[in-house]
Write a structure and sequence with these properties.
326 residues; alpha+beta; six-stranded antiparallel β-sheet; 24% strand
Length: 326
């Protein structure tokens, strides 16, 4: 699990990125990094350890209009500076940050190595940058090039991409890993979690699986896997930035435990998930018809850590209340 943040506009880019990272540090804290565009070149600063290590490593008074940032929880490769994100393509024209896991990265890496592409890290993410650069070298239409590269990937990803040849653009893409765009006045924020941008804007759009978003400081375009334009609905975040902060609690786990009673009250209250007059519940995200729900024959829970215990309870409830094997 990692945290990703991007910004494009005329604000204090580096500090905005660092602020976003700090608000996502609970999602990954073994290393972090930022990539920024300066004079049509991408400069990358990354460090093992907490975000404070990165902050002390970045030169003072860096000026840029566009950048991406990442806080990592390692999946591929050791915890060190080389494996920290962002990752360059072989020609340093593409920089990528990534939340998720690419299942077929070894096959892709072997293929790219056989074509002469060098690699500097042990990560699955670095192959994404070189794949994109490869398709950009033969496909001049940026939407087509990005789409062709993404279609080679198997697994999950939330991506932010910088390109030296398109210095007024950040590209985001999602497949199974969350991505949200925050809309400001002549500035845009993009992150894996609205918590990273709530301090700057409460107007957001949520990127869906299979969608790619092309973000400029005053506009955005969203396409699906077939390169068709997708209209997005702007939503307002109702909660305040302070609600996502630690406040009086020493850890986010402790904060979450003590907030459970209020979360249950909201779920059962007006506008929540309980439809008391119908003796029913309103669930988001499933998007299944009644017939499709009735056709379900078995349910699998996948989890790890303390989520394992939640899954055990979930299986018990599913079998006793819904009478569906779980």
């Amino acid at each position: 699990m990692c945290g990703i943040v991007g910004y494009i506009g005329q604000g204090d880019t580096v500090n905005i990125l660092l602020e976003g990272l700090k608000r996502l540090e609970y999602r990954g804290y073994d290393s972090s990094g930022i990539g920024i565009l300066q004079k049509n070149k991408i400069k990358i600063y990354k460090k093992e350890g907490r975000i404070s290590n990165l902050q002390s490593f970045i030169p003072n008074n860096l000026q840029t209009h566009c950048g991406i940032a990442h806080t990592r929880w390692a999946t591929h490769g050791q915890v060190n500076d080389s494996n920290a994100h962002p990752h360059f393509s072989y020609d340093q024209k593409v920089a990528v940050i990534h939340n998720g896991i690419i299942d077929n990265y070894l096959d892709l890496k072997k293929q790219l190595e056989s074509e002469g592409y060098p690699f500097q890290s042990d990560t699955d993410t670095e192959i994404i940058a070189s794949l994109i650069s490869k398709f950009l070298s033969v496909e001049k239409n940026i939407e087509n090039a990005i789409n062709q590269a993404l279609q080679k990937l198997e697994g999950t990803y939330g991506l932010l991409i910088l390109l030296t040849d398109y210095p007024d653009l950040i590209i985001g893409a999602r497949s199974g890993s969350p991505l949200v765009l925050g809309i400001g006045e002549n500035q845009m924020y993009i992150a894996s979690d609205p918590n990273a941008l709530i301090r700057f804007t409460n107007q957001v759009i949520y990127i869906a699986d299979g969608e790619t978003i092309f973000v400029k400081q005053d506009s955005y375009t969203t396409t699906n896997i077939h390169n068709q334009l997708v209209e997005k609905q702007i939503e307002n975040i109702e909660w305040q930035a302070e609600e996502a902060e630690l406040g009086e609690y020493s850890t986010y786990m402790l904060k979450e435990i003590f907030e459970q009673p209020e979360a249950i009250r909201r779920a059962y209250g007006e506008g929540g998930r309980l439809l008391a007059e119908f003796g029913n519940a309103k669930l988001g995200g499933l998007n299944l018809s009644t017939r499709e729900l009735l056709d379900i024959k078995k349910i699998h829970f996948f989890s790890m850590g303390t989520g394992y215990y939640s899954s055990m309870i979930g299986c018990y409830l599913m079998e006793t209340l819904a009478r569906i094997p779980a």
